[in-house]
Design brief:
By secondary structure, the chain is of the alpha/beta class. It folds into three domains: 306 residues, Glycosidases (TIM Barrel, Alpha-Beta Barrel); 56 residues, Oligo-1,6-glucosidase, domain 2 (Alpha-Beta Complex); 75 residues, Immunoglobulin-like (Sandwich). It contains 15 helices and 22 strands. The chain has an eight-stranded parallel sheet with strand order 11-10-9-3-2-1-15-14, covered by helices on one side. β2, α2 and β3 form a beta-alpha-beta unit. α4 runs parallel beside α6. The chain is globular, with a radius of gyration of 23 Å. The two termini are 35 Å apart. The structure holds calcium ion.
Length: 550
Amino acid sequence: MEKDFRRCSFYQIWIRSFKDGNGDGIGDLAGVLEKLPYIKSLGVDGIWFSPIYPSPNADYGYDISDYRNIHPDYGTLDDFKKVLDKAHELGLWVIMDLVINHTSDEHPWFVESCKSKDNPYSDYYIWRDPKWVEGKMLPPNNWFSQFEGLAWEYCESRQQYYLHVFARKQPDLNMDNPKVREEVKSIMRFWLDMGVDGFREDVITYISKQEGLPDGLSFLPAINGLPFYKDGPHIMEYLREFREVAKEYGAVQIGEAPMTPVKTALSYMSGEDRVLDMMIQFDTMMADCFLTEYVYHKFTLRKLKRAFSKWQTELDGKAWNALYLENHDHPRVINRYGSLKYWRESGKMLAACYIFQQGTPFIYQGQEIGMTNIRLESIDQYLDVASKNAYHSFHLREKVEKRLRRIHVSSRDSARTPVQWNREKNAGFTTGEPWFYVNRDYKRINVEAEEQDPGSILNFYRKCLALRKSSETLIWGKYREYFPLSSRIYMYERSYEGERILVICSFSKNEERFRFPKGYDGPGELLLDNYDGAGQEKVLRPYEVRVLKY
Ligand SMILES: [Ca+2]
């Protein structure tokens, strides 16, 4: 199957909340199999599965205890093969999540590694002796974990600490050990031999740690070790080894790259000898927060536009963008960058504002129907380790209601509520008791209702993807932003072989006057908009989007 990933678009499945096929309240592969025709109907070309491997779920699948199997909650390897075959039959690629910065602490490698300093797995993880200061035992350095407390956990049987950049139950692998890299390649081959089409590689830029593991700046919570484990000294070597395997199979590789500047990203994914095909940057997720969603500030369009345009222009002609506004790590985008009052209008505008940029669009489950953040009443109802930690670590002097409001706008759990399929009990997600809360808005926001409504957000996503697919300009065209200083309107052009397409997006709750850029006289041919009936030529209605061809 010769496909160009640059022409493709992908649908991300976070399986636990996608669709339950056997009534136990947990999404599974039977549910995915049932919904493959729906996914195909969106007009996407492939699926990215967030981890579906056995996992104790300390970080919902991103803590893997067996790389060569399927979590029993989700089915069996045979069930997976059925999904894979059916997806291929429908012309859909299947991309697996490759989580190799760390494993679960319940992975047999780690269980063995803990036992002694001289067993076959003793050097699979990053073990260090304690530091003794005035008779007191301290961790080897001052790094914080990104999820909870310090980045080190003591292990009695080895009398040593192990490193965990994320949760305690996610020990970091020692990628400097060639045996570990052989394991990674063997895992890749296992899935590629089965027929999967590529990998989305979790925090792949963290896998090479700086020698000596030096102390970080102690006043930076959560990320003080970052300079010493991000884009580390041997990262290119290691990624080249993995690339060799991917190349044998023609597999696509998408690297997750938190806090990676665009210049660094280019070093990974430009040129023929690139080690990654695309990278998932975080800049465009930061328009209403600082570094992480848990440090909220008011949404500013100019910050979003700067991030969009930076990646669009810097990668142009050199590398290829992965475009997204939602995934399992971020709250719902309508709550963030759109408006609940103008739910339908802003949901559609947000779709068009990114899908028509240069790059490969990713759509996260539920995004295509405009799912919104869930509002839970107490912190105990939230399940995500990072949300709980943020609640218990930051803004402790504020009232409970205010702290909960912060979690409501920032929690990853909002992306993890069951997909709303219809207006029946549990939104049609399960016939049993759902494992997590269903958003109360499901009677209004669900797939079935939106299927029947030609003006729905769902059908708008279909139109966007179909339009992109049919237009060489929207796939290959050069990107140019107009009026970058506007704080209410985002306007960009894609141009290719004499054709120009202008995308005009309002991020305002009010009507906004606008003018066309120099060189544009008149409204062109309207390819797509999100209101019934034409408005005034030079006034945008709230959250209006127009896609115009010249
Ligand atoms: Ca199930």
